[in-house]
Write a structure and sequence with these properties.
The protein contains 20 helices and twelve strands. With 478 residues, the chain is of the alpha/beta class. The longest helix is centred in the last third of the chain and has 22 residues, at 412-433. Bound molecules: 6-O-phosphono-beta-D-fructofuranose.
Length: 478
């Protein structure tokens, strides 16, 4: 029996959402949100709940059902991961955006913070793990300096099957592999992509790569709980069944229609009201190095989903909230000054971990110097908690909206909950804002311009358009 099958263990691992410091009875009428404001939104909330239910029923939000629909996929992933473990020294993800940020965040959360530096037996026999989420040539070359392609498996991940960055990475790797291992290169490449659309699936089928599919109703940034995230996680020894069980548990917690009992809905409603009050920035500040890259993953989720323009009776309206990544306590010493005394334009979301997996005692010393010796006898975890509480207090005192997501500890179950919570919050915020949270039209212009500049057939007109833009003036370059 797995531990997540035990109801009392699950309950003990429940993530909680503390929104005290968003509320006017805590930070003051002028600065916070009142219960009455939330109640006044009930018709809108009800409509948003119905809209999300409809979408789920119509299969448009398949990401919501990933915890339940992948029994066979999980089996396949576990078998594939085992084969990779037995054969390869390194495992490299090629991808960008939603095809990279989730695998990075989950790996950082659930594996040793210096995973790649550990000897293999301390990695439970798992391969070293890299994610190439950029196309910087120096970074690519640096990777090839430390891996041996002959003993490396590459997981090409692209939902659209056509992203230039990922396909360029793929072409480079395929060429190197062919050179190094000849026809066997096929056995080194696993493609994770849409089952029908895009170029990668065609290539994968023609060349006989092992493939995993991203369901149609799962967009890139909502895909971490699909094979996009599950295969890399399983290869690195993460319990993906527990991850999915955590997501299913959060789905249950987010199934209530009463916003006061539904953490994802409440989180979205508060952000919605905050946005209406000019809080255009959403800072995510985990107080745990293991969750540092959750803020990166969340940044894409929140920005691409909610940053939209639309038309209201011929007038353009712009919505969204700029996500900012921060890390406690590190950024207390770089950003907190701005958050406590700068403009009232932010909501700060702390992520607090109650129990750390490691404890480090601070030894006693310099008893004759009380300003130093007070630290001795505590643990680093206690210091971290005190600093989180102190920062929360400082923000509260400065009447700045802040909220805290509390994880009893960081494990696959709580990380599954966290991912799912933030996904539902984002989707619900999209409904409240009346926008499509699942597209990203604003990314297309840049993508098309890249195609044109790189000479992709069919983009000749775009190229002419680009060439027709005003020439840059030397006088403005100094
Ligand atoms: O998985 P794909 O299709 O390669 O897309 C990568 C990323 O590019 C975007 O389409 C645009 O940035 C993201 O939404 C997506 O996660």
């Amino acid at each position: 029996m797995k531990r997540f099958e035990d109801a009392s263990w699950r309950e003990s691992m429940r993530i909680r959402f503390d929104y005290n410091n968003m509320m006017s009875d805590m930070i003051g009428e002028e600065y916070g949100i009142s219960k009455e404001q939330i109640l006044a939104l009930q018709p809108k909330i009800k409509a948003a709940i119905e809209a999300l239910k409809e979408k789920r029923k119509a299969g448009k939000t398949e990401w919501r059902d990933l915890p339940y629909t992948q029994a066979d996929v999980v089996k396949d992933i576990l078998a594939t991961a085992e084969a990779i473990k037995n054969r390869f020294e390194s495992f490299v993800v090629l991808g960008i955006g939603g095809s990279a940020l989730g695998p990075i965040a989950v790996h950082q959360a659930l594996n040793h913070l210096h995973y790649n530096e550990l000897p293999r037996e301390k990695r439970n026999g798992c391969p070293r793990f890299y994610v190439v989420d950029n196309i910087d040539p120096e970074r690519m070359r640096a990777l090839f300096d430390i891996i041996d392609v002959k003993s490396t498996a590459f997981n090409v991940i692209t939902k659209s099957g056509s992203t230039s960055e990922t396909m360029a990475q793929f072409l480079i790797v395929r060429d190197m592999l062919k050179e190094a291992v000849g026809d066997e290169y096929r056995e080194h490449i696993i493609a994770t992509t849409d089952a029908e659309k895009g170029n990668l699936i065609r290539i994968a089928r023609e060349e006989g790569f092992k493939t995993f599919y991203i369901p149609a109703g799962v967009g890139g940034r909502f895909s971490e709980l699909s094979p996009v995230g599950l295969l890399p996680a399983a290869v690195c020894g993460i319990d993906i069944e527990e991850l999915l069980a955590g997501a299913a548990y959060m789905d249950e917690l987010c199934s209530k229609d009463d916003v006061f009992e539904n953490p994802a809905y409440m989180a979205a409603v508060l952000q919605y009201i905050a946005m209406k009050q000019g809080k255009n920035i959403s800072v995510m500040m985990p107080y745990a190095d293991s969750l540092k890259y959750m803020a990166d993953w969340y940044a894409q989720l929140w920005a691409e989903s909610l940053g939209k323009k639309f038309d209201v009776e011929g007038r353009e309206v712009y919505v969204g909230q700029t996500p900012v990544k921060a890390l406690g306590v590190t950024d207390q010493h770089s950003q907190i000054q701005l958050y406590t005394e700068g403009p009232f334009d932010k909501v700060i979301t702390f992520i607090k971990v109650e129990n750390f997996r490691s404890q480090v005692d601070i030894p006693k010393g310099y008893e004759d110097m009380p300003a130093v010796s007070f630290l001795g006898g505590h643990t680093l975890g206690q210091l971290l908690h005190a600093e989180q509480m102190a920062t929360e207090y400082a923000l509260y005192k400065a009447k700045r909206m802040n909220r805290t997501i509390i994880l009893p500890e960081v494990n696959a179950f709580t990380v599954g909950q966290l991912l799912y919570l933030l996904e539902v919050e984002t989707a619900f915020a999209g409904e409240l804002l009346n926008i499509n949270a699942f597209d990203q039209p604003g990314v297309e212009e840049g993508k098309n311009a890249t195609y044109a500049l790189m000479g992709r057939p069919g983009y000749e007109e775009k190229k002419a358009e680009l060439e027709g833009r005003p020439k840059k003036r030397e006088e403005y370059i100094i």
